[in-house]
Write a structure and sequence with these properties.
The complex is a heterodimer of chains A (440) and B (520).
Chain A: E1 2-7, H1 11-22, E2 27-30, E3 44-45, H2 47-55, H3 59-63, E4 68-69, E5 72-76, E6 79-83, H4 87-98, E7 108-110, H5 113-126, E8 130-132, E9 136-143, E10 146-153, E11 159-169, H6 176-180, E12 186-189, E13 193-201, E14 209-213, E15 216-222, E16 228-235, H7 239-243, H8 246-257, H9 259-268, E17 270-271, E18 276-278, E19 283-285, E20 289-290, E21 293-295, E22 301-302, H10 310-329, H11 335-346, H12 349-361, H13 369-378, H14 382-392, H15 398-401, H16 404-412, H17 427-434
Parallel strand pairs in A: 1-2, 1-11, 2-8, 5-14, 11-21
Antiparallel strand pairs in A: 3-7, 4-7, 5-6, 9-10, 10-11, 12-19, 13-16, 13-17, 13-18, 14-15, 15-16, 19-22, 20-21
Chain B: H1 3-7, H2 11-23, H3 27-36, H4 39-44, H5 64-76, H6 87-94, H7 113-124, E1 133-134, E2 141-145, E3 151-157, H8 169-182, H9 197-210, E4 214-218, H10 221-232, E5 238-242, H11 247-256, E6 260-263, H12 268-281, E7 287-292, H13 304-313, E8 317-321, H14 335-339, E9 348-352, E10 362-366, H15 369-378, H16 380-383, H17 390-403, H18 406-428, E11 440-446, H19 448-461, E12 463-468, E13 478-483, H20 490-511
Parallel strand pairs in B: 3-12, 5-6, 5-7, 7-8, 8-9
Antiparallel strand pairs in B: 1-2, 2-3, 4-10, 9-10, 11-13, 12-13
Classes of the chains: A alpha+beta (440), B alpha/beta (520).
Enzyme class (chain B): transferase
Organism (chain B): Micromonospora carbonacea
Keywords (chain B): Aminotransferase, Transferase
């Protein structure tokens, strides 16, 4: 009998298991993969994601093999902004969410899942959790309407059956736990992006860059093994045409969104792996908990990759859920109270607003005139640029940046006008051109 | 990586090949193609039995093959790419007013069209909460028509008349008397010949209510707030303003100076920090600190005692907007100032008559006769607006008299009985009422789509409530602003709360939204 069985041993699962095991609870983690291995992911950690690793004592292991940066470049239709997430906002974020702001770091990183997930799963084992890899859960054991354990196929091909006081579904957007329980998807946002990416060596972009133009985006971030992840994305309505020539269209998208980056990749880059892609990214929420089970990470709420927040949110869930479960397992609260506390954080007004923000962004509509003017107004206003970046990454509340009085003040304080940016020259014609499928 | 890896087909191509084989029932080919699918995708799509495809029943008899095909298709060609949507409803619910704040183009007339298109979409989908009209006096029950001509009757939390003066016989009598004595028109600026003897009496009454004897009248509350700031503050001065202070104050601040600092709502320590910062580099110019008394969106109020002290310590001047609390709460109707023992102590107080005094209009009050004369001269909205009409002035004067009488205490007691009934019933039903008990009961919703659809249902179910969203509140924190009247019976308030809860539950089901209305 375990205190908790965690189904899924990657960002959400290994971290939840690690934190529970460190509190002295008996934890079993089961994952169908063996480690190290990769999984579809934009594998980006924003500063709060890195801060979680630091709080858990794992950051040094990650940064020993992974480049990190603090300043990020965001270029929208040729309007460049650079900034970093302020420590003060990070601290406020952790105090609000977890009641303690220790371990905050300002850096971000792109960590291959074969690197990160291995570190996490090893740390969970070291903390005392039992980790079974290459093992597949095929059944939930339900007794009196309550999940009490799991059955599955072990790595040696044999069957296993284990029981626990709680089963944690940390098995991603296609969660077996959620599907078996028949949990519906709430607040589903089908409009999402398609994303294609691979790994290139041969050039150094200096730091992370995110570019947008019209309905397309691209990003380059230095990652492990001396390589750069280069990612392009666009509206899922264009995915069929994109798929007709994946390598050609990756380059075409780069050249369109950022000619400089397109040139760099074409002339200096060597692609080191095949191109990966997905358009299975619609946003949704599922019920968070029920009798004998609780969900964390993508299993409870998946979102589009366009703000690259999934892993960071998985860590957040792990800390919130394990803290709640610990209070219950230690006899300090009832399970209902503990789960209500978890739910209060995860289904809060700020969370809802950020979910809306990501889902709206993932429709990949061209930026409107006023949005582009806002980016111009942010130029030279470092404090508000940094707040914007923090808002984009779900560190500062959406409601505080996108508040009328703040936006009006930003306009008033603008140091630049739109005059220097070609996108404003014949905006109507440019907007019409942006609606055309580049790959048709 | 080896070059074979590079030549591998990408997952999209492989999944197409698997689906193609599945249509022929060729499970062996499905398994062969699946073996080449990247580790990335296999570990992601854990619901696909990648390793066991060869074991599927090729006849499809057990339905497994069809399930795998459906899951793979959904991954690679999701159904939403084929499903039509109601474009009007999508457009109506997706956008915010701010999306139209900076229209493009040089034709000022033509570029308002985009916004109008959105308004029309919201009207057609009955999610436009503005521009409703009354068919009769807005009592605790009201009959209204929306801008599509659709009529409804319901429990009214949509009017601001906290003490139910609109139907009070003495108030109506005062209006009739003023009409008889002076006629409907003030016929001039208050700086010229727009005021009457009643205006002087009203100024004196407000002076007694606030403890600040030098009072200037304005023809609207908005112009009092805007005028007070632009009248006093110059370009090199500073304004330090609560992030949620009323719009007239925010816009006044922006019109007066570029040196505007918005501080965290209610945070007096943040004000102190800002004042220290400003004084560290500017000892020569003025600083105006601006806050509401009772905040109309969050129903809370600041610690004015400390705030006023902090202002004095840094040679800053405090302005407090008591539009929502004066008359309706506090000992003798003295509002938040009276509750904090600050009558006559705050540098500058401004207010509006439209909530508790049954009329348009506003005022600015202080203990300084010089400030009064200065504001009259340099607040454009005082000098260059026609004065309050004699009828309005008489109504407000009579309202001020009742507010300070024992009847005022009685009305406030009835008001708070209704407030508690409403808040208790809403809270008991698991909804989140923000702030403190006050005539404003903000019911937090959050998501705008949820609020707009709930509002549509409420209209049909007999509760009149104003839904506030951007630009009144920040995006993502929309709410219902329920404004209670002394005339509301507690049972009416409880009934309304039940209906509101039902409408929110049904809207959540309609949108299949899982978000609650927890505060954080």
């Amino acid at each position: 009998m375990y205190d908790a069985i965690v189904v899924g041993g990657r960002c959400a699962g290994a971290a939840t298991a690690l934190l529970l095991a460190r509190q002295g609870h008996r934890v079993l983690v089961v994952d169908r993969s063996s480690f190290p291995s990769d999984v579809i992911s934009t594998h980006f950690l924003w500063p709060h994601g890195m801060s979680y690793l630091n709080r858990w004592g794992l950051l040094d292991q990650v940064t020993a093999v992974t480049p990190t940066h603090t300043v990020v470049d965001i270029v929208n239709d040729g309007i460049p902004l650079s900034g970093s997430v302020p420590v003060s906002l990070l601290r406020e974020h952790f105090r609000d969410l977890h009641g303690d702001d220790s371990g905050v770091v300002q850096s971000y990183a792109s960590v291959r899942r074969r690197v990160l997930d291995q570190i996490l799963v090893e740390a969970a084992a070291k903390a005392g959790a039992e980790v079974r890899t290459h093992s597949t859960v095929r059944e939930l054991i339900i007794s009196d309407g309550r999940v009490v354990g799991v059955r599955g196929r072990a790595s040696d091909g044999g069957e296993f059956e284990e029981r626990a006081r709680i089963v944690v579904g940390a098995d991603g957007r296609n969660s077996f736990v959620a599907r078996t329980l028949g949990l519906p998807r709430f607040d589903e946002r089908p409009r999402c992006t398609f994303a294609y990416w691979s790994y290139w060596s041969g050039f150094d972009p200096g730091r992370g860059q995110i570019h947008r133009r019209g309905r397309l985006g691209c990003a380059v971030v230095p990652t492990n093994f001396g390589q750069n992840m280069v990612l392009v994305w666009g509206p899922s309505e264009w995915s069929r045409e994109f798929r007709a020539d994946v390598p050609g269209n990756v380059q075409r998208a780069l050249d369109f969104v950022s000619p400089e980056l397109g040139e760099l990749v074409r002339t200096r880059g060597t692609r080191e792996e095949r191109i990966y892609g997905t358009l299975d990214q619609s946003g949704f929420l599922r019920q968070l908990h029920g009798p004998g089970w609780v969900l964390v990470g993508d299993a409870e709420s998946a979102k589009d990759q366009c703000t690259a927040i999934g892993m960071t949110h998985a860590f957040r869930d792990a800390e919130l859920a394990s803290a709640a479960l610990h209070r219950w397992l230690a006899g300090e609260s009832s399970l209902d109270e503990a789960m209500a506390a978890y739910e209060g954080r995860r289904r809060s007004q700020n969370s809802a607003a950020y979910y809306d923000y990501v889902c709206t962004l993932s429709e990949m509509r061209p930026y409107r005139h006023d949005e582009l003017q806002l980016f111009v107004a942010l130029r030279g206003n470092q404090e508000e640029t940094d707040r914007f970046i923090a808002t984009h990454a779900d560190i500062a509340p959406v409601s505080e940046f996108f508040q009328a009085s703040n936006l009006f003040l930003l306009n008033d304080a603008a140091k630049e006008s739109s005059a220097g940016y070609p996108v404003f020259e014949d905006f109507a014609a440019t907007s019409r051109m942006y609606q055309q499928n580049l790959f048709a | 990586m080896t070059s074979t890896d590079l030549q591998q087909r990408d997952d999209g191509e492989l999944i197409e090949a698997i689906l193609d084989a599945a249509r022929r029932g060729d499970v062996a080919t499905m398994a062969r193609e699946a073996a080449e699918v990247s580790e990335m995708t296999r570990n992601w799509a854990t619901h696909i039995p990648w390793d066991d495809l060869a074991a599927l029943d090729a006849s499809g008899a057990d339905g497994e093959l069809a399930r795998v095909v459906a899951d793979l298709t959904e991954m690679w060609e999701p159904a939403h790419l084929r499903n039509p949507v109601d474009p009007d409803e999508e457009y109506a619910l997706d956008k915010n007013a701010y999306d139209f704040y900076r229209p493009a183009g040089r034709d000022l007339l033509a570029r308002t069209e985009d916004f109008y298109g959105w308004v029309q979409a919201r009207r057609r989908t009955e999610t436009w909460q503005y521009s409703r009209v009354l068919e009769a006096a807005p009592d605790s029950i009201a009959e209204i028509t929306n801008d599509l001509g659709k009529r409804t009757r319901g429990i009214n939390f949509n009017s601001q008349d906290y003490l139910s003066f609109n139907t009070h016989p003495a108030i109506r009598e005062a209006a009739v008397r003023a009409m008889r004595d002076y006629g409907p028109h003030s016929a001039g600026s208050p700086m010229v010949l727009g005021n009457t003897r009643i205006s002087d009496e009203l100024e004196a009454a407000l002076g007694e209510l606030t403890g600040l004897e030098h009072v200037t009248l304005f023809s609207t509350g908005w112009s009092a707030g805007f005028g007070a700031i632009v009248g006093l503050v110059r370009q090199s001065d500073h304004v330090v303003i609560d992030r949620l202070a009323h719009s007239c104050l925010q816009q006044g601040a922006r019109a007066a100076t570029r040196n505007v600092v918005r501080y965290e709502h209610l945070n007096v320590e943040a004000v102190r920090q800002h004042l220290v910062d400003i004084r560290s580099h500017d000892t020569r110019n003025g600083i105006l600190v601006v806050t509401d008394g009772l905040f109309s969106v969050d129903a809370d109020w600041p610690d004015l005692v400390t705030l006023q002290r902090v202002c004095r310590e840094h040679d800053a001047t405090l302005l407090v907007d008591v539009a929502h609390d004066l008359g309706a709460m506090g000992p003798g109707g003295t509002g938040v100032l009276g509750m904090q023992g600050l009558l006559g102590e705050v540098d500058i107080v401004m207010g509006a008559f439209s909530k508790s005094f049954c009329s348009n209009g506003g005022f600015v009050a202080s203990r300084s006769p010089a400030l009064k004369q200065y504001v009259k001269m340099f607040s454009g909205s005082h000098f260059f607006s026609n004065a309050l009409s004699p009828v309005q002035t008489a109504v407000v004067r009579e309202a001020a008299r009742i507010i300070r009488s024992p009847e005022g205490d009685e009305l406030r007691a009835r008001l708070f009985t209704a407030i508690h009934a409403l808040r208790d019933e809403l809270t008991g039903r698991g909804l989140t009422c923000m702030g403190e008990p006050s005539p404003i009961v903000p019911l937090l919703i959050g998501n705008e789509k949820l609020a707009r659809t709930a509002n549509r249902l409420l209209f049909d179910r007999g509760v009149l409530a104003f839904m506030v969203e951007f630009p009144v509140t920040p995006t993502g924190s929309s709410r219902f602003r329920l404004q209670v009247q002394a005339g509301h019976r507690p049972e009416e308030a409880r009934e309304a709360a039940r209906i509101i809860e039902g409408a929110i539950a049904d809207s959540r089901a309609y949108l299949s939204s899982a978000f609650g209305s927890a505060a954080r």
